[in-house]
Amino acid sequence: MTEKYTSILLGRDGAVEASGVDSGVAAHYGAPTREARRLFAGQAVADLSHFDVLEVSGADRQSWLDTLSSQRINNLAPGQSTQALLLSIQGRIEHEMKVLIDQDRVLLIVEPGRGAALEEFLNSMRFMLRVEVKNLSASHGVLAATREIPTAGQLIWHDPWPGITEGGWAYSREEHPGAERPWNLHVVELEKLTEAVGEEQLAGMMAVEALRIAAWEPRFGAEIDDKTIPHELDWLRTSVHLNKGCYKGQETIARVHNIGHPPRRIVLLDLDGSMHTLPAVGSEIKLGERTVGSITSATLHFEEGPIALGVIKRNVDPAEVLSVIDGDSVYPAAQQVIVAPDAGQVAGRFTGFLRTPPKP
How confident is the model at residue 275, as a pLDDT? Predict the structure, then answer.
């Protein structure tokens, strides 16, 4: 049995440990709303040292990952980064990888606890290729900020969200709130975590999630279930290259995009603030008496108040006010459309801006 990870930064004053998949790091350090403001403004750093990190080395490393994943990786230079998915034959999301190219290796950042499953899958696909997969999760983790952290080194994954990467396609509108939140993940050695943080102010996972939800960015550990396809989450923006070569799940990607619509769509919900609480993840989203989806993430944002991400049936009218049901509590919820009901190639490609990784 793997020993539970506990960050050394949980020893800081005021630290309260997060729960669930984020246990082992701080939910907050005593003031989650203030921490979110600081994190958004570039005045704080978040401890994501519980995220898993894998290393892929060998001469065939990039071409191999390119053939397996939804994203073009073979053409990236050292210092560049992207996002990629591993899909089932049916196009359902099985793994999400934050890909960082280093000089003689590729680093993959994945959700807490997902490293072992990804390592096992990748090793099963090595065949005779010149690649080696190593799980670095016991020795490496991640620090996050809306800017680069001077004391944390130069192994930095730059989040492409919400830009439209080469070969990508946007299912949401041109004016995207995620443009206000650049996001950088520094890969650091756990034994040097305190040194990497330096004198920076700290923000907990509640702050991280508040910024993510307000930026409409899906998270593998939250918005994904066993039926999710990338179109439903607007992940064709950053994690799918529609014109690259064959990979598992490509037929579904192409068919839904070119001649259909995703069966569900991610939506941001503005919740009634009079409840003074947040609905639990998994709470039903209803239109009248009909269940049309469920809550996947919820937060109290420092400007927007109580908001949530949910996944609902595609054909729900965006003008409808929905209800979120959590036990005896009922939260009226207005929709902010992320993925449009008519999303697909015929709906047009928004090209408001393109966020590309910085050149090394």
Answer: 79
